[in-house]
Amino acid sequence: MANRSYIYGIKDNKHISIGESPYKIPYAYQVLAAYENSVIDSELFDKKVGIKANFNLGKKALYSLLDFLVATKEMKDHTDFVSEVEKTKLFLDEIEAEHILLENGEIYALYQNKEGQYLDGPGLERTNEFERQDSEWIGEDVANLEKFGIQPEKLFHLNDETLESLFESLLKLKDTWKENLGLDTWRSILYFQFNEA
Known about the structure:
The chain is an alpha+beta fold. It is built from seven helices and five strands; from the N terminus they run E-E-H-E-E-H-H-E-H-H-H-H. Helix 2 runs antiparallel to helix 3 (78-93). The two termini are 28 Å apart.
């Protein structure tokens, strides 16, 4: 079985399957989990490795980011990128949720400490807190595009080391979006499925 990250919507204590990704936590999941987020007990694993966040704020930010990247007209295989953005919106537009539940326990189980040992319970929980913070910072990256007045046609031509450093993770998406953004990972049926009436 592939180690996966899982993302669900939550509304009225019911779970809506949104996506799963093998061997990584996609950038799109991190954007969705970026706002008003908190660490919670996992609903899949026996550790405090869940992340809960505001779905509507995350979706708004993800759409804003994707529209911005489309407007650069410089994403690798740009036609494919535009198509995947459209499919993403069609899928997420159907999701009615208040919160996101991001479950990364299987991914963290792949991590090792400095001694080469797989992480134990406290290590997994610390890793989850780092991931929560990373998601929050990625949300700030999206906000900083507007804050710093970055225009789409300028993103990949900043010529400013400070700005290049600030937007480093975004800049990498130009050539690696197929591997790292996760636009092909949306699913209504997941390996771990909450069957709720």
